[in-house]
Specification:
By secondary structure, this protein is an all-beta fold. The chain is built from no helices and 16 strands.
Length: about 230
């Protein structure tokens, strides 16, 4: 009779309805795809009525405990972290708006929809230094740099302090729903639901800023992912 040892993994879900980030512990069968057991481990309350929409952990191994959350109903991004000593989630800093102070325009139609606030997706650059977050209605991408305590790496650990706005740029379309970052970090794609296209931007690796390149027509574009050409069958 052979014994099967399970591997413990963690799952995280952004729950828009309950304004929370839910943390699950899952025991997975290493000899197959089935999950043996999945139980709730913890829950982080997001700001009331903020509507967490997307969640992405930092790809840099030194910052793998840091995640960014897109708050749909308040058009903000929120930096959170998984605490090292107990694995629980906590906020790093206050949520940051994706919108300029003069938005929405009082004469515009956008103010009729949740007062012009409607965020969508947020992604990291591959090096983990920058966050890119899209705002629908305003149709823009906000670029943020990650800020460290004392502005530098500490000797013993990397301590994250928050995010700083670097750039806000038009997505060149209407209703950006999803962002796709290339694995090399040189390009960012934005799909637009209501202008029916995908915009491409070139990314400056030195300062994180974006420059518009061109657009491709795609009907009702809602999701965009980049894959290596040699992996497509």
């Amino acid at each position: 009779m052979s014994s099967i040892s399970a591997k413990l993994v963690e799952l995280y879900a952004a729950d828009l309805g309950s304004d929370s980030i839910i943390q699950f512990a899952a025991n997975c069968n290493p000899q197959g795809p089935g999950v043996v057991e999945c139980v709730e481990k913890g829950r982080l309350a997001a700001p009331s009525a903020s509507g967490p929409r997307s969640l992405a952990f930092n790809p840099n191994p030194l910052l793998s405990n840091i995640a960014v959350v897109s708050l749909e109903m308040t058009a903000q991004v929120w930096l959170i972290r998984r605490r090292m000593h107990d694995g629980c989630l906590e906020g790093v800093s206050r949520p940051i708006s994706l919108l300029p102070e003069n938005w929405p325009i009082q004469e515009g139609t956008e103010i009729q929809f949740n007062r012009g606030r409607w965020a969508s997706d947020a992604v990291w650059s591959p090096d983990g230094k920058y966050v890119y977050a899209a705002a629908r209605l305003h149709d823009s991408i906000s670029v943020f740099s990650i800020q460290y305590q004392n502005g530098r790496y500490r000797t013993s650990a990397v301590i994250v302090q928050g995010l700083k706005l670097v750039q806000r740029i038009s997505t060149q379309g209407v209703t950006p729903r999803c962002l796709g970052m290339s694995g090399c970090g040189e390009f960012l794609l934005v799909c637009h639901q209501h202008s029916h296209d995908v915009s491409s931007f070139q990314r400056n690796g030195d300062d994180g800023t974006l420059t518009f390149v061109n657009k491709l027509d795609v009907n009702c574009a809602a999701c965009v992912k980049l894959v290596r050409a040699d992996t497509v069958v």
